[in-house]
Design brief:
Layout lengths: L1 H14 L3 H10 L2 H17 L7 H21 L1 H4 L1 H6 L3 H6 L4 H6 L8 H17 L6 H32 L11 H6 L9 H10 L2 H4 L1 H7 L17 H16 L7
Helix pairs in contact: 3-4, 4-9, 4-10, 10-14, 10-15
Length: 259
């Protein structure tokens, strides 16, 4: 981990060389969730609620999703842009170093400008928490932390699996964005508003429901909530394990592009 933090400090210093650009990019990152939140506000202003969910409850769901996605984009960007390392032959150098390839790819790129989006989402989360009519217990706070951690693990797993495909496709596959950006857009709202097949896919294949929708029911004291829903974010580890295995399989079968 010391090496990882060293990578982080080096890249942070390089990005801060152009401070004005960095600050503008950071501020600009706030507008992505802001526009989505504004659209959500006007939707609820018109209809009042969606399938029993209020604006404050959905805002809480929205904030958790964006916090998890922003942290993953900031600190796991190396996997999201991994195809360029394969295409340019830079991955060959990583293989020569006596360190884990996962650690080196994680430390190859950081998007610190995502801190702007993260800060906005944290502010929204605090505001939504204060609007909840029921008190926040220790169990609810622990559930909230697990939801964010589980979301990070799922996005990281998807990034790793998408990066692994680059060993065979060379160029990154845009369809993976259906699971990253698409998953983020889907989980801004409780999954109960979607078709049952979509709910099944995002519960049993890519378990976003286990780290977002189902634990959210515990936070808002939904009548259908079950106590064990608080522990469902731990299911995210079951997606990370095969993604790491797939990565190692890809590394063993990697053939240099010769660049």
């Amino acid at each position: 981990m010391a090496l990882y933090f060293r990578y982080m400090i080096i890249l942070l210093k390089s990005q801060l060389q152009y401070r004005a650009s960095f600050i503008m990019l950071t501020i600009g990152q706030c507008f992505t969730p802001l526009t989505s939140l504004a659209a959500m506000y006007f939707l609820f202003e018109r209809f009042g609620q969606i399938k029993g969910w209020t604006y404050h409850e959905v805002a809480l769901c929205f904030a958790v999703t964006y916090i998890a996605f922003s942290i993953t984009e900031c600190f796991a960007r190396g996997f999201d842009t991994f195809s360029s390392l394969v295409r340019d032959g830079e991955f060959d150098r990583l293989l020569l170093r006596p360190r884990s390839t996962v650690l080196q790819v994680l430390g190859s790129k950081f998007e610190f400008s995502r801190i702007g989006r993260l800060g906005f989402s944290i502010g929204l989360l605090i505001w939504a928490m204060l609007q909840m009519p029921t008190p926040w217990t220790t169990m609810k706070l622990a559930t909230l932390i697990l939801m964010i951690a589980g979301g990070i693990i799922i996005y990281l797993s998807i990034f790793i699996m998408a990066a692994t495909l680059s060993f065979w496709t060379i160029q990154g596959i845009e369809i993976v964005n259906v699971l990253t950006d698409g998953g983020r857009e889907m989980t801004q709202y409780p999954l109960s508003i979607y078709h049952k097949n979509i709910r099944r896919f995002f519960t049993f294949i890519i378990p976003f429901a286990c780290v977002n929708y189902l634990p959210l029911m515990v936070l808002v004291d939904h009548k259908e909530a079950q106590p064990f829903y608080s522990l469902l974010p731990l299911v995210s580890v079951l997606l990370l394990i095969p993604s790491i295995w797939l990565w190692r399989f890809g590394v063993r079968h990697y053939r240099s592009t010769g660049s």
